[in-house]
Amino acid sequence: MTIGDMVSILKARVLLGEDKLDTPVYTACCSDLMSDVLAFVDEKTVLITGLTNPHVIRTSEMLDLKCLVFVRGKVPNEEILEAADEQGLVVITTKATAFSACGMLYAEGLRGVPVPLEWNTEDK
Amino acid sequence: MDALIHNTYPVTARDYTSAGHASADIKRRLKQLGVGGDVLRRVAVASYEVELNLVIHSDGGELELQVFPDHVQLVSKDIGPGIPDLSLAMREGWSTANDEARSLGFGAGMGLPNMKRNADDFAIESEVGKGTAISMGFKLG
Fold first, then answer.
1. Under CATH, which architecture does the B5-139 domain have?
2. A38–B44 CB contact, under 8 Å
3. A33: left (phi > 0), else alpha (psi -120 to 50), else beta?
4. Which of A:39-98 have CB within 8 Å of B?
C-alpha cells in the first residue's frame, strides 16, 4: 500500500508531506519506546506511536524512517513538526488508538518489521 | 593515518532537549562524505544511543568522532559516576534510567547491547567514581 492508502484506512489527517503520499510502504512498527525502535527496526519503515516528543523525530532521523503516524488524535507541537519537515518525513495523525490503527493496517495487508528474536534460554 | 574528520561534541548531563544534536551532526557529516546505507544507519543509531546514555546516566562527557578512509571511530568519555557491574549493564532489559528518561521513550535497557550490535568493534571500560569510556569502530567500504 502507499502512505495515501494508510491515510484513507486510518481516516487520518496529513500534517506533513502531502506531496509524498504515493510513497509505497510494506512494513510498520508500533511503539512508544524509542529504545526498542532503535534496537529492533532495521529498515526504512513507518512508525506508529503515541509519543510526541522531539526524540520521536530524532529516532526517525537516525533510522531514516519514511512516515510517522500519531495515534489518539495527537498532534506534536510546531517545533517538532518543523524538525520533521526538515527531514522530509511524512507525518499523519489518526483518531484511532495504537491497537486499532495497527489492526486496520494489518487487515489491509501491511506487516510488521521483521524482528529476529530468540528466547534467551538462561531466562526461564 | 590522518583523520578526514575529527570532531568532539560536549554532552551535558540531563539536557534532554539537546540530546541527539551531536548524533544528527555526525550523521550529516558522514552523509556529506558519501557514507551511506547500512554503515551510516549503524553509526547513527550507535551514536544516538551513546549520546543518550551520556545525557541520561553520566555526570557529563563528550563524544569524539574520527573518520578515516577505511573506518569510523566513535569514542564516548564521561566524568562519572561509572558503572558498578558492567556485565549487568550489558544485559538487554537492564536499566537504571530515571522516570524523566522513561517518559521520553528511553530506559528500556537496550542502549549498550544495541551499540555493541551495531558497531564492528566495541569496547567499554568503567570505573566507579571515575567514569566510563566506550569505543566503537565501524568499517567503511
1. 2-Layer Sandwich (3.30)
2. no
3. beta
4. 39, 51, 53-56, 58-59, 61-64
